Each structure stands twice: as structure tokens, then as C-alpha cells.
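queue> pop job 88
queue> type: inverse folding (structure -> sequence)
queue> payload:
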């Protein structure tokens, strides 16, 4: 009976998040102010619609240029001016069709994507609003390649795919009032193009539908970072939000990797001025200058003295350091930060997970190593229970 209610609650939860959807609507090239670009099919062919009216079916070699003219979009091929429209859609005629985009104003490199594209203008008509309607798993593959890079291990890509899928479904519709579901920037998840790495595609479809939930059946905050420097952080030490699963762990798998150590030197006078600025009382003019600080016994949360208590995450941000996992020592008229790791330190350590995958640990083991008290759920299997 307890298992029945567990499944029922889980079904209701996923119904709220509309997990039966097979596509995701992504704003692409979000960070670029594009005023003219070229579209062409990469594989397959596309039907073209202007303001909802079918214009024609074009062969796979068709090339289209779109340029902003006032409050409309001018659509041209090499041979013909097809007219001006408020809305243009390029709809794939085959399920595996893909396309290329190259921005002309401003100039940028070619990007490739799966699925369909809808072309609109922003409310002020200053730039294009490009919406890629793409199969959810193809989108996840593109995110994994953008976030995890190429040349990795298949088992590592599996866990990265699961986390990216979990993150998507937990944040789906965050841009719904703007007319799309997610953006392609780090505000949502990096999605630079369609995936081309064979192992990434294998990993995504081998884990199709798998997501991570906590003991309350909520999708987890699927946090990850480049390198933890040997110890991850509690979520509450970084974001002031405590979770049951984002807890600090020791991690020896990342300590020999490329992002494990770093250094930064600043002038002692600049450091002194910074601490004076952060003092808690304006009456204290003789703030102690901390020139010796270490985290050899484990991660700290604050740099503190009787006159100040500064969150390490603030120091990281203010001095653009790679992490909060650093020690301080004075060298002459300078202060040296000797740091470990790269990123916020919460959740999965990517370089640690890569090393674990190389050492033949399974993706399930890696998941439970970095996230405590979580479960993997196969979303596709839930539809069976839903019909009961």
C-alpha cells in the first residue's frame, strides 16, 4: 500500500510538470542581437510558412536570408524575394531533419540544430527571436555536449544527461511568459548546437527519461561544477538553501585534474582597503588585516574577525576567483590566494565524475556518490501506471 501511494504521488508530481511532452521550445542565440541571418537545411528538407501560409516545400540545398525591415521580416532566396512577414516557420518534413544558421549582422560562426525553427521579432523590433522546437532528448544531447564537452567517457555522459534532463524538467516553462520554455544560455542550460559526439548520443538515449528525485519525490536541484578541489560544499553554505542531498563530501578523484589548483596574487594595500570596506562598524578604523587564512582542515564559509564576517562566496565574486576553497598568505607587499577547485562546489564535481567513469565506476554509483538519499526514476515507465 505504501508503494502504491508513492507511485501515485510521483505520477501526480510529473503530471504537473507535463513530462509527457516530447519536445522543448528553446530560444537559441539568446545572447546575440541578430538583425540578419541565413538559414539552410543540414539534413532532410523543410516546408516554409509565412504568417501561417505555406509558401513552398524546398529541397535540402535551399538557402534563405532573413533581415529585419522595420517591424517585419524580409525573406529571400538567391533567386527570389518571398515577401515580408511577421512570423516565419521552417518545419521539418523528416523526423531527423536538422538545419544550419549563420548570423550576418553581426557576423558569427555557423550553428547547427535539430528540429524546427520559428522566427519572430522581439517586442521592440530590434532583433530576431529564434525559437527552436526540438525533440527533448536531442535537446539534452546538445546540452550535454555544450556543458560536458567532447571526448569524454560514455558512463560520465550518462550521468550528465540525467542531470541535464532533471534540470530541464525542474525549470521547464521558466520563460513561458516570453513565448518559449527555456533559453540556450547559462540562465537555463548552455545549448550551443546539436550534438555530434557519438558517445553523447548513445548516453542520452541509453538513459532516456531518467531523472533524479529526492525522498519527497521532488526533482532535485541538479547542481554541478567543474572541480571541487577535493571537497564539495553544502548547498546552504553557497545558496542559503539547505537540501537533504547536496551535502559536502570528500572527493579524491578530482585532485589530480586540470582545474584542481590555482593561484591569484593581489597587492596588500588593495586587500587592506577591501577589509576596511567590509568592517562591521564605521567607528573601527584599525581593522585587523588578515594575511593568514587556510582551509586545510576542510571548507569554511566565512572569513571573519571581530570587525567583520565576510562570506567567502562574496570574496570569490569580488575578486573573480575560481572558487571559495582558498588559503591566504602574505608575500612581501602582496597577498597570495592559493586555491583549489573551480566553480561553486555544490553537487557533481565534473572532473571527479570523469575520473570515476574512467576508473569504470557506473553512472549509478557516481550519482549516489555526489548526491545523498536520491532515486533514479524512469519517467517513460510512469505512463503505464497512469493508465491503470
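queue> result:
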Amino acid at each position: 500500500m505504501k508503494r502504491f501511494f508513492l507511485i501515485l504521488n510521483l505520477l501526480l508530481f510529473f503530471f504537473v510538470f507535463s513530462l509527457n511532452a516530447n519536445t522543448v521550445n528553446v530560444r537559441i542565440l539568446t545572447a546575440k542581437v541578430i538583425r540578419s541571418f541565413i538559414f539552410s537545411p543540414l539534413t532532410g528538407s523543410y516546408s516554409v510558412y509565412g504568417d501561417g501560409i505555406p509558401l513552398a516545400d524546398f529541397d535540402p540545398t535551399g538557402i534563405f536570408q532573413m533581415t529585419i525591415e522595420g517591424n517585419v521580416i524580409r525573406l529571400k532566396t538567391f533567386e527570389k524575394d518571398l515577401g515580408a512577414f511577421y512570423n516565419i516557420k521552417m518545419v521539418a518534413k523528416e523526423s531527423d531533419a536538422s538545419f544550419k544558421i549563420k548570423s550576418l549582422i553581426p557576423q558569427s560562426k555557423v550553428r547547427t540544430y535539430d528540429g524546427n525553427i520559428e522566427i519572430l521579432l522581439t517586442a521592440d523590433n530590434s532583433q530576431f527571436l529564434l525559437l527552436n522546437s526540438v525533440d527533448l532528448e536531442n535537446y539534452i544531447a546538445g546540452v550535454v555536449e555544450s556543458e560536458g564537452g567532447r571526448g569524454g567517457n560514455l558512463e560520465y555522459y550518462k550521468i550528465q544527461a540525467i542531470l541535464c534532463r532533471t534540470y530541464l524538467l525542474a525549470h521547464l516553462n521558466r520563460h513561458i511568459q516570453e513565448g518559449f520554455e527555456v533559453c540556450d544560455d547559462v540562465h537555463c542550460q548552455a545549448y550551443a548546437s546539436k550534438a555530434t559526439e557519438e558517445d553523447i548520443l548513445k548516453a542520452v538515449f541509453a538513459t532516456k527519461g531518467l531523472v533524479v528525485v529526492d525522498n519527497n519525490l521532488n526533482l532535485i536541484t541538479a547542481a554541478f561544477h567543474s572541480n571541487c578541489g577535493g571537497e564539495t560544499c553544502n548547498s546552504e553554505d553557497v545558496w542559503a538553501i539547505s537540501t537533504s542531498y547536496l551535502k559536502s563530501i570528500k572527493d579524491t578523484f578530482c585532485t589530480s585534474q586540470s582545474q584542481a589548483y590555482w593561484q591569484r596574487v593581489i597587492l596588500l594595500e588593495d586587500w587592506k582597503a577591501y577589509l576596511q570596506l567590509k568592517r562591521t562598524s564605521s567607528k573601527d578604523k584599525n581593522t585587523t588585516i588578515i594575511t593568514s587564512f587556510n582551509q586545510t582542515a576542510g571548507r569554511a564559509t566565512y572569513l571573519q574577525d571581530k570587525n567583520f564576517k565576510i562570506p567567502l562566496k562574496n570574496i570569490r565574486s569580488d575578486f573573480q576567483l575560481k572558487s571559495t576553497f582558498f588559503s591566504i598568505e602574505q608575500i612581501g607587499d602582496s597577498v597570495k590566494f592559493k586555491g583549489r577547485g573551480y566553480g561553486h562546489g555544490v553537487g557533481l564535481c565534473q572532473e571527479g565524475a570523469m575520473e570515476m567513469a574512467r576508473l569504470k565506476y557506473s553512472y549509478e554509483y557516481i550519482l549516489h556518490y555526489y548526491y545523498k538519499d536520491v532515486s533514479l526514476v524512469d519517467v517513460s515507465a510512469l505512463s503505464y501506471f497512469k493508465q491503470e
